[in-house]
Structures are given as structure tokens and as C-alpha cells.
Amino acid sequence: MILFFVGFVEMIIVTAQTKSVADSKIIMSGAVTLIHTLIWYYVLSKIVENISNWNLAILYGVGCTLGTIACTAYYQTMEKRKRRRVKKASALSEVVLNTKPID
Predict the structure, then answer these.
(1) In the chain, what are the domain boundaries?
(2) Considering the entire predicted model, what is its pTM?
(3) What is d(CA 42, CA 103) in angstroms, rounded to the nearest whole number?
(4) Which residue among 6, 19, 24, 59 is least packed, with the fewest CB closer than 10 Å?
């Protein structure tokens, strides 16, 4: 069961790594890569120790899937909020700029 949680956390980290690379955050990308490598080393050692136990691989895979879905949904929600704020600020600035002074 622990590999399920490890997979979940790992995919959150991998998704954050992908976002940090896409956003050109150099130090963050490197730090996340280091953490991801250490997690993968742990996962690999557990899978090799129990190579005939398919349940571990399935639990890990389901954890990875859900972790990716959760983190991607989070980033999608944040992007939508950001777009709404920008749109609202843009509409507000149009109203402010288009008003005429009262005599």
C-alpha cells in the first residue's frame, strides 16, 4: 500500500517538475529532479525485492495515475483563476479609462 502513496506523491513531484521546466525555473527544476530520482530509486528497490508481486506494480501505477490527475487538475484550476483575475482586471481598467469626468 505504501507504493500507492509513493506513486501518488511522485507524480505530483513529476508534474511540478514538468511545470517548472516549462516555466524555465532552473533551480526548482534541478531540485525537483533530485527528489524524483531518490523516490524512483526507492520504488525500483521495492519492485526488484518483490519482482513477482504484481499487486505492488498495480498499486504503484494507480497511485501514479491519481497523482498526475490531482496535480494536473490543481494547475488547471489555478490557471483558470489567473485568467479570470486578468480578465476582470482588464474589464475594470477599460471601465476606468473610458469614463468621462463629471462637470
Answers:
(1) 2-96
(2) 0.69
(3) 73
(4) 24
